[in-house]
Amino acid sequence: MEIFDFIGAKLADFLTYTGFACAEWGNWGMILVGAFFLWLAIKKDFEPLLLIPIGLGIILGNIPFKAVGLEIGLYEDNSVLNFFYSGVKNGWYPPLVFLGIGAMTDFSALIANPKLLLVGAAAQFGIFGAYMIALAMGFEPNQAAGIAIIGGADGPTAIFLSSKLSPNLMGAIAVCAYSYMALVPVIQPPLMRLLTTKKERLIRMKPAREVSQTEKIIFPIVGLLMTAFIVPSGLPLLGMLFFGNLLKESTKTTRLAKTAGSALNDTIVMLLGLTVGCSTQASEFLTWDTIKIFLLGALAFIIATASGVLFVKFFNLFLPKSKKINPLIGNAGVSAVPMAARISQNLGLEYDSKNYLLMHAMGPNVAGVIGSAVAAGVLLGFLS
Amino acid sequence: MMIHKRFLGILVGLVAVVAAFGQGARSFKISEVVVTNTDGLIDEYGERSGWIEIANTSWGTINIRSCYLTTNRAALNEELSVPERVKLMSLIPKGDSRTNLSAQQRIVFFADGRTNLGTLHTNFKLEEGKPNFIALFDGNGKTLLDSVTVPPLAENQAYARVHDTETDSYTWLVLDEDEVTPGSSNVGQGQVEDKVAEWKEKDPYGVAMSIIAMGVVFVALIALYVFFRLFGYAWSMLSKMSRVRAIRAVREQADKAAVMAKQGMETKGVDMKIYMALIAMALKEYEEDVHDVESNVLTYHTDEHSEWSAKGFTMREWPENLH
Q1: Are A370 and B225 an interchain contact pair (Cβ–Cβ within 8 Å)?
Q2: How far is B299 from chain A (nearest CA, A)?
């Protein structure tokens, strides 16, 4: 009989260790959020490469367990998840993602028509508009900066900056940034229609000139020198972005560029997405601050899109008729590459079936990547 | 040539290592000194003595082992040999993990003249009521890393290196007993460095931040715009000039060929149509710059499989009924 008592006691003890016994309502709520992300990714095809790791990460991070030093939790020293999380916490995943982005990006559109750089710069007003609103909502300047960078529409930059300035809000900021990036096709088109006239939407831009290989090689070198000398605090992101691009354009390191843009990038994106998802534990995530962050993120995207489009309209006032820019590419100044550019293309084709804006929109799109990294560097320099 | 390249590589590597080391050691600064300690910090044995705090001012981890501390000005005399100078100094021993200072970390040495008490004790004492010269030397016993002359201090007062936020420079100040901070950054005179608090106080609505940051973003991207605008212009001028030169050269060749064709037809009976076709082809190739690696031009390569390499030809039996 003693053995049965022992078994009974141990089973009862075991039951206290299960997730069912440890779960709170918040955990179930977050698991539902994770499932919703998976549904969006798999069923609706919204950014599956990001939302599947994040969605599963949310589920993984919200499976409760008894904290008895098993070294399994994301925040427990020596756990595997904690080891993976170090890339987010210490901010070395985002520069590696930037390396991959650099290795995959063709800056030709920008080099051929460098005035599009200014559109990328204008769209960064989304960041600072959101910064002002966040301050008005009662956030501290460092928290406001971490939240506002969502307006750059650049997940790695958002994670990099928030890990340095507001680590306690990083989970919410990262999930918010990636969610809105997935929702770019929903947020941007109505705004673009609202802010442009039919005549403006029909503007046809001249095909970009051909860019020589020498120019493509010089771009990452000069780009790095010019931006990093102005904002050294953006060095991790800018350095890796231009390094990746030089690997691609030098034509001598194709193998490295291919690895940086595919295998390495995919590995980092998987780990980044999973651990960011894991960091949204109910106790940390289900707060009023998270709701405010999501609201601010939406506003940041709206301001960024609007400022990009309006800047093009303003710019057109000074351009000769033959060189006018279609304001539908203004939205691409937010750096969600290449989604934002694709939206310009789709909307352009909707109004003129022969008006292909993709290559033109790629200019502000990649300029947005540089612009948001510079903006992050400025905020980091001032507030860290 | 290869040997030279390797030698150059090794040399560059060595220079980089030496430079990195030098830069690292130079980040050590004497940051706070208490000469008469009657009511402050106690050592591992519960005793009080004057102490010297050294800060790693860099953002990396550096080990201060093997460096030297001294209060003897004679150690500055460059005419003395290194062994003679080192005899005038107190060695910071190896083998103690506490000497490995992470970014911005500080370490305190007790100036009690009793090195037998451990790594954190020096072989000299600080003199009360007098100015004290203190110097920190690199491990080579020659390179002076930092030095300071501490004025006469009252009991438990400190002489500290404090950051002046207004001028963004460091100054030495006498701190009262309640401002002494052994092992941590020197606050002194209420000059607390808190960027976030400053922004919150001076820019509560974020307008200044927005103007400055947007300005920086625009300046950075305008700089790129100007460079690539000018570079693109110069590049297109250069390529236009080289194209004109090439066309001119081709035309000269074509003229010569036409003359040769005419002469050939007249003298040797060569078919003029062949000459003209060749000239036309040459002109087309030069003017259109036809080649295989041009961007935006799809070049079609014909199947290069032969009977020796094509998979179909290795089949022993051909299928009779293909649907």
Answers
A1: no
A2: 17
Residue A76 domain flag: no
Residue A21 structural domain: 1-67
- B33 and B173 share one domain: yes
Shared domain for B156 and B212, answered yes or no, is no
The SS3 call for residue B308 is coil
pLDDT in tens, B241-293: 988 888 888 888 888 777 766 766 565 555 667 667 767 776 776 666 555 55
Q: What percent of chain B has pLDDT over 90?
A: 28
- For residue B279, tell me if it sits in a domain: yes
Whether residue A72 lies inside any domain: the answer is: no
Nearest CA in chain B to A138: B204
B149 lies in the same domain as B261? no
> A1-33 burial by CB neighbour count: b if 16+ within 10 A, else e?
eeeeeeeeeeeeeeeeeeeeeebeebbeebbeb
Do B90 and B43 sit in the same domain of this protein?
yes
Range of the domain at B269: 207-293
Pick from A272, A281, A292, A282: nearest CA to A143: A292
Q: Which residues in chain A have Cβ-Cβ distances shorter than 8 Å to B193? A: none
CA distances from A85 to A56, B87, B291 (A): 15, 50, 50
- Residue B277's Cβ-count burial label (10 Å; 0-12, 13-18, 19+) is exposed
Contact A136 B220 (CB under 8 A): no
* pLDDT tier, A255 (very low <50, low <70, confident <90, very high otherwise): very high
d(CA A99, CA A102): 5
pTM listed for this prediction: 0.72
Q: Which residue has the tokens 């960011």?
A: A276
Provide the 10 A C-beta neighbour count for residue A200.
Answer: 18
Per-residue pLDDT reduced to its tens digit, B156-212? 899 998 877 667 778 888 888 888 888 887 765 444 457 888 888 889 999 999 999
Tell me the torsion sign for CA atoms A181, A184, A186, A190. positive
CB of A210 less than 8 A from some CB of B: yes
Which residues of chain B are within 8 Å of residue A112 when distances are taken between CB atoms?
A: 232
Report the alpha-carbon distance of residue B126 to residue B33 in Å, rounded. 10
Find the angle CA(A24)-CA(A30)-CA(A36) to the nearest 5 degrees. 145
Tell me what pLDDT residue A367 has: 93
- Does residue B5 form part of some domain? no
What ipTM was estimated for this complex?
0.88
Residue B286 lies in a domain: yes
Most confident of A40-54, A184-198, B46-60, B151-165: A184-198
Give a yes or no: residue A74 inside a domain. no
Instruction: Give B129's contacts (C-beta < 8 A, 6+ positions apart).
Output: B152
Query: How many separate domains does chain A show?
Result: 2
CA distance A376 to A10: 53
Query: Among candidates B284, B187, B6, B213, which has minimal Cα distance to A230?
Result: B213
Q: Are B52 and B155 in the same domain?
A: yes
Write down how long chain A is: 384
User: Which of A114, A136, A378 has its CB closest to that of B232?
Assistant: A114
Q: Which amino acid, one-letter code, is at A50?
A: L
Q: What's the rounded Cα separation, in Å, for the pair A159 and A295?
A: 18
